[in-house]
Amino acid sequence: MTHNLFGRSAFVAAAVIGTIALSWLLPGASRAADAVIIPPPALDVKTADSIQTAVIAGGCFWGVQGVFQHTAGVVKAVSGYAGGAKKTAEYELVSTGTTGHAESVGIKFDPKRISYGKVLQIFFSVAHDPTQLNRQVPDTGTQYRSAIFALNDEQKKVADAYIAQLNAAKVYNKPIVTRVETLQGFFPAEAYHQDYLTRHPNEPYITHYDLPKIRNLQKVFASNYIEKPTLVGSAGLRTE
Length: 240
Prior knowledge:
Layout lengths: L7 H10 L34 E7 L2 H9 L4 E9 L8 H4 L7 E8 L6 H12 L7 E2 L2 E2 L5 E5 L2 H17 L9 E4 L3 E3 L7 H4 L4 H17 L20
Parallel strand pairs: 6-7
Antiparallel strand pairs: 1-3, 1-6, 2-3, 2-8, 4-5
């Protein structure tokens, strides 16, 4: 794995050297982000009959995937890459920050159980901090940017309107920097990245940054929380 020195690699290294208390090593990375209580979107996508797709990016995909795997109505949440070309959708290349890709999560959801707007509300409230530009502490680079990849004009309209709504309500101390981009393609990440939070619950990075997101989801969105995660498994995903 080729993260920057003060990013995920430091926490992965901690599991090897037996050092859990790494806050002193990671500038500005002393705690996981708190949930922010925000209103639901005033504008939402019209309810459809078939399974719908949302693609979002909010830093390391491990935690974002984990949040939506514990969200009711989500049929599948897959870690992957969006924003760049298919030929560069590989972890080692994306980690350089030069491909245009962001670590993303492709979400298949049942619109009769959860709306696109609710997906965005959870994304902004507990899945990441949308005020951090090209980073999610402790990871830095455009590959960790906050982004919503709209699949159509209606999704783009809802996303743009929601960002404007939240900024106007001043629910955060700083402006939202989330980019709304048109989805050109979503490419599933390598199999070892899938279901990472569930498979590595004791890894220091997961316990420090990602498990608090799951607890925040349970607390803030109790009616949307499911205890047993909806896992991807290995079927149909890359193995390299």
